[in-house]
């Protein structure tokens, strides 16, 4: 038994597969010692709310990464969908229509990304980088560069309400992650998506419509970003067209820390949950310790690099 454990610990793949869970335990233990406020229910609840928004975004990012791509446009799609939601609601269209409008706005960006990548054969990185710039400009133009309040009893209830100890935010994030996990592990669509990311030429030769798979994953990606925008507005109480670059970095790091490969063909949704918790816990602990905000992006950047190294070990 001891020998088996030793072999397992010397295996780089073990550390790559379990980095998020190991990191969560270590970081949680460190912050529990450094500050007495970390393990309070109020702080844990706030931490999980932040993690819920990140988890929805990370799940969106998971769909593009599993096909060997990446979605940089999340940084602009998120505020764009939030602006559409705010304008629709403040324009008197009502909450149901505003929710649909935000999700459709995010989905539209995903459709364009998918078509440009699949049909025009533009690299995922370049296509989504271009869309980041385009949608950043569109969000600023539509909003006039101004943030504005969105006051709604429904949003307040969404942000603060719960079913027993389970906040609505947690429930939404859990349902999204569970749905993605089941999709990848128990459906033909998930198998085709994984095959497309693993070896696109081989998948095409097997009869899998790889172009349609590419478009589909970016459509799902965009729709989930629209949902995350609604949660963000519910939590902050307003729409802000500013770039959300921190969300982009953390969504990528959450996916790769969780065990998914940047090279595609491997999905680990449950690991992504742990990855999102790791990054949220890290930033939460820094805030409690009153570490300067200037250092927080550095920490996230280091985690992104570490995640890329771990992905290499997995490959």
The value of Rg in angstroms is: 20 Å
Q: Helix count?
A: 14
Mean of pLDDT: 85
Strand order of the largest sheet: 1-4
Summing up helix and strand content along with how strands pair, one would put the structural category as mainly alpha
CATH topology: ABC transporter involved in vitamin B12 uptake, BtuC
> pLDDT below 50 for ≥5 consecutive residues: which ranges?
none
What's the main sheet like? Answer: 2 strands, antiparallel
Strand segment tally: 4
The figure for the number of domains is 1
Report the top-level CATH class: Mainly Alpha
Element order: H for helix, E for strand: HHHHHHEHEEHHHHEHHH
The shape, in one word, is globular
**Distance between termini?**
27 Å
Supply the CATH architecture: Orthogonal Bundle
Q: What assembly state would you assign to the polypeptide chains in this entry?
A: single chain
Residues in helix, %: over 70%
Brief synopsis:
The chain is mostly helical. The chain has helices at residues 2-10, 12-34, 41-65, 74-90, 95-118, 124-143, 153-160, 168-186, 188-198, 200-205, 210-236, 245-257, 269-288, 296-314, and strands spanning 148-149, 162-163, 166-167, 238-239. Helix 3 (41-65) runs antiparallel to helix 11 and helix 4 (74-90) crosses helix 11 (210-236).
């Amino acid at each position: 038994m001891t020998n088996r454990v030793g072999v397992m610990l010397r295996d780089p793949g073990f550390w790559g597969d379990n980095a998020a869970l190991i990191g969560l335990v270590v970081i949680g233990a460190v912050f529990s010692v450094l500050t007495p406020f970390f393990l309070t229910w109020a702080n844990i609840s706030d931490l999980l709310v932040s993690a819920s928004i990140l988890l929805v975004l990370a799940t969106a990012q998971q769909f593009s990464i599993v096909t060997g791509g990446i979605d940089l446009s999340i940084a602009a799609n998120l505020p764009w969908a939030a602006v559409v939601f705010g304008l629709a609601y403040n324009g008197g269209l009502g909450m149901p229509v505003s929710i649909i409008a935000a999700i459709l706005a995010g989905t539209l960006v995903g459709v364009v990304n998918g078509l440009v990548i699949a049909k025009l054969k533009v690299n995922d990185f370049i296509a989504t980088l271009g869309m980041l710039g385009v949608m950043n400009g569109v969000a600023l133009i539509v909003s006039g560069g101004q943030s504005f309040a969105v006051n709604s009893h429904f949003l307040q209830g969404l942000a603060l309400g719960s079913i027993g100890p389970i906040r609505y935010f947690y429930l939404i994030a859990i349902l999204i992650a569970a749905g993605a996990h089941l999709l990848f592990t128990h459906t033909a669509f998930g198998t085709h998506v994984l095959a497309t990311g693993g070896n696109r030429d081989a998948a095409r030769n097997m009869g899998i419509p790889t172009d349609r798979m590419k478009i589909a994953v970016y459509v799902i990606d965009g729709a989930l970003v629209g949902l995350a925008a609604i949660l963000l507005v519910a939590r902050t109480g307003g729409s802000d067209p500013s770039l959300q670059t921190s969300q982009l970095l953390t969504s990528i790091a959450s996916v790769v820390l969780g065990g998914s490969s940047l090279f595609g063909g491997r999905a680990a949704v449950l690991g992504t949950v742990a990855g999102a918790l790791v990054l949220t816990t890290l930033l939460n602990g820094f805030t409690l310790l009153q570490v300067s905000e200037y250092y927080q992006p550095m920490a996230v950047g280091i985690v992104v690099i570490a995640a890329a190294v771990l992905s290499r070990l997995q490959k």
